[in-house]
Amino acid sequence: MNTAFELSDLKVEVVRKRIKNVHLSVLPPNGAVRLAAPHRLNDQVLKSFVLSKLSWIRRQQAAMTDQPREPQREFLYLESHYVWGDRYLLDIKTNCRRHDVVLRPKTMTLELWGEYSEKKCHRVLNDWYRGRVQEKLNELFPSWCDRIGASPNQTFVQKMKTRWGGCNPETGNIRINSELAKKPVECLEYILVHELIHLVEPTHNDRFQALMSSHLPTWRSRRDLLNSLPLSHEEWRY
Questions:
Q1: How far apart are CA 234 and CA 238, in angstroms?
Q2: Sheet holding 173-177: strands in order across?
């Protein structure tokens, strides 16, 4: 059961879990603060923990507010869309034999079965992005699982509202956000390595950072690249 407490103007949501350590998150788009905490820790201990991280929380919230954002997508002719970090101008064809997305130099053609609707465009493009991420993961998985010495039980590619990826060490499952198909491939690879290493080390402690640096020395610059790119209305920082 979720609870909450307040510190000055800061509201903190508390999620009790069967875990050993406290996990602090600042969630987009508005910088909501969430704590995942073991059942044994009372609110006073958690308040002290949040106070010790207050400057970090404020920095994260400020970064979310300051990060540039793209216009909301309306699926108009020559509207900009992105695939693996490259910009394409949109063209839409209706009454096609099937739904499809076709990339040509500088152009993304959205082919629709039947008549046009914005809802249909969203659905077709989101499904296509998910397929591109799955294809790229199929290429990356074998070598990275071998190098890290960890393999997920199941991998889910889906559109996620608050994170680029997620890992449940207890089940061995990882989740990857399909929106990463819009970003450079090195960003997807960073998230994949991040979540695979969480199968070995569940927290973001010194050991986790050392493993990241050992396996992917450029992980910090890749993270900074991902967080520096303009966000759409459906995207966030990691």
A1: 13
A2: 154-158, 173-177, 165-168
Radius of gyration of the chain (CA): 20
Angle at 189 between CA 186 and CA 191, to 5 degrees: 115
**Residues belonging to the chain:** 238
Q: Whole-prediction pTM value?
A: 0.77
Check pLDDT > 50 for residue 236: no
Confidence (pLDDT) at 162? 72
C-alpha pair distances (Å), 137 with each of 79, 129, 145, 176, 217? 28, 12, 11, 9, 20
Q: What is the pLDDT of residues 126-170, one digit of tens each?
A: 999 999 999 999 999 999 999 999 999 999 999 987 788 988 888
CA dihedral 188, 189, 195, 200 (to 10 degrees): 180
Closest C-alpha among 183, 137, 177, 175 to residue 160: 177
